Amino acid sequence: MSLTFSRPPRKPATSAAAPPEERATFKSPVLPWLFLLPTFIILAVFLYYPAFRTLRLSLFRSNIILGNETFEGLGQFAELLNSPVYHQVILQTVIYCALVVVIGLLIAMGLAWLASRPIAGAKFYRLMLIYPYALSPAIAGTIWLFLFNPEIGVINNILASLVGTRPRWLDNPLLAFGLVVLAAIWKGLGYNVVFYLAAIQNIPGEVTEAAAIDGATGWQAYWKVVFPLLSPMTFFLVFTNLIYALFESFGLVDILTRGGPVYGQTGITTFLIYQLYEDGFRNFKTGVAAAEAVLMLIMVGVITVMQFRYGNRRVHYGA
Questions:
Q1: What are 195-216's pLDDT values in tens digits?
Q2: Given 18, 43, 116, 223, which is the most exposed site by the fewest CB atoms within 10 A?
Q3: 3-class SS at 24?
Q4: Which residue, among 161, 179, 163, has the nearest Cα to 171 in the 3D structure?
Q5: What is the model's pLDDT at position 93?
Q6: Are the C-beta atoms of 289 and 213 separated by less than 8 Å?
Q7: What is the C-alpha separation between 53 and 66, in angstroms, rounded?
Q8: Per mean pLDDT, which range of 35-44, 64-73, 172-181 is the poorest?
Q9: Cβ of 182: how many Cβ atoms within 10 Å?
Q10: What is the rounded CA–CA span in Å between residue 175 and residue 153?
């Protein structure tokens, strides 16, 4: 079997003719499928089969200790959707995701703009901004746990010397929720800064120079020129940050608060992914946990469709 590349016959040259497209030609129709076979096997073993098993498990009420299962159909989905605890978890997750995505992107955009300025030590500042992303969520959570420890934490020591108070950050529901949000924003800041920095450096200098010649102030040039040109990157980062907030909050929550403290029906920092963990691995409700996973998949799918359908209208490509 051999692989050759051939060019299609040249068409008559025109002023706006596109360059000829190279196409791979296989002498055997089986060869491309053989190249794709390892990818198909990996996807089937690690993605499609577990997804199928999760979907099946969501229809059964099972006991992993006794090894029995009873068909429930959509009963577990109805149970979840009628549960006040699950309603509170969904609301907390929506608020948490909105705060992490909106505040995180605004801070990252501003820092990337400042880091793109020609100042002394710019490389060091950029490195320090990217540094939090290199940490695992567990290590980041441990750092924040020590920083806000009510007895020995640096933050409380500073507050005690300035205003004479030592807040119980992890015992007060609102303070605990705010602390988890801040930790998640800080953890994802480096990722967002890297992409925004690359996008800012790709904006042609002539565009901002033209705005300056027309009399635009620094803020006007940023808001009227730079901000719209960053919209394709913002569109991409909104989706990736949403996925990060939904699925990667587990490590921070588990280290900092373990889902608590209790507020209303459940812990105020119990988000969807942590509720799934609690039901699946602590309460051994594997069928309910599988139903929660399916509901999360549906939520992400709906959000993605809405984002591409409505969010893409405000994206401006090209200077």
A1: 999 998 888 888 878 888 888 8
A2: 18
A3: strand
A4: 179
A5: 95
A6: no
A7: 19
A8: 64-73
A9: 16
A10: 15
Tokens coding 257: 């608060």
**Dihedral sign, CA of 206, 208, 211, 212?**
negative
Tell me what pLDDT residue 43 has: 95
Task: Compute and round to an integer the Cα radius of gyration of the chain.
Answer: 26
Instruction: Report the DSSP pairing between strands 262-263 and 68-71.
Output: unpaired
What letter does residue 28 receive in the DSSP assignment? S
Q: What is the C-alpha separation between 247 and 272, in angstroms, rounded?
A: 8
- Whether the upstream peptide bond of residue 261 has omega within 30° of 0, thus cis, is yes
- Do 311 and 235 touch, CB atoms closer than 8 A? yes
User: Which has the closest alpha carbon to 274: 253, 260, 257, 294?
Assistant: 253
Alpha-carbon 201 to chain mean position: 23
- The answer to whether 264 and 272 have CB atoms below 8 angstroms apart is no
* Residue 305: Cβ within 10 Å count: 10
Burial zone of 109 (CB within 10 Å; 0-12 exposed, 13-18 middle, 19+ buried): buried
How does pLDDT run across 268-314, given as a tens digit for each residue? 999 999 999 999 888 888 899 999 999 999 988 888 888 777 766 66
| Cβ–Cβ under 8 Å, residues 92 and 271 | yes
Q: Which helix (H) or strand (E) holds 262?
A: strand 262-263
Pull the structure tokens for residue 8. Answer: 């299609």
Give the pLDDT band (50/70/90) at residue 13. Answer: very low
The DSSP code for 312 is G
Of 3-12, 133-142, 203-212, 255-264, the one with minimum mean pLDDT is 3-12
The gap from C-alpha 285 to its chain's centroid, in whole angstroms, comes to: 27
Q: What DSSP designation does 136 have?
A: -
